[in-house]
Each structure stands twice: as C-alpha cells, then as structure tokens.
Amino acid sequence: MAVSYNKLWKLLVDKKMSKAxxxxxxxxxxxxxxxxxxxxxxxxxxxxRICGAIDADFGxxxxxxxDIK
Length: 69
What we know:
The protein is mostly helical and 69 residues long. It has 5 helices and 2 strands. It has helices at 6-14, 19-25, 30-37, 44-54, 58-61, and strands at 2-4, 63-65.
C-alpha cells in the first residue's frame, strides 16, 4: 500500500502556507514532516490535526496509490 501527500502540498500552495507554517499550526514533530515529505504512512491522529489546522478533509490531503502487481 502506498500513499501520496501531493494533494496536501498543492493545498498549502493554494492557501499560501509554507510547510513550516503547517508544522506550527498542526503542532507536528520534525520527524513527522519528514515522513510526509517521503510519502510514508503517518498516524490518523496526525492527519486529523492537519485537517483541523487547514480546514480540509482527508481526501483533500492524501491519496491512496495501489501497488501494481
């Protein structure tokens, strides 16, 4: 299973927010930001904080990418 946070980065651009602004607004640890940048899974509680900080829905920030077999 793979995920992509490209939607999140595009949404930040639309909202004129930097990644540092998001980190402060959602109270994210630097390690969590690294996971997001690398498209690695993060806890649902982290996604909830991000959605709350930028007034978005899960589908607005994350995309499921199925494994090709």
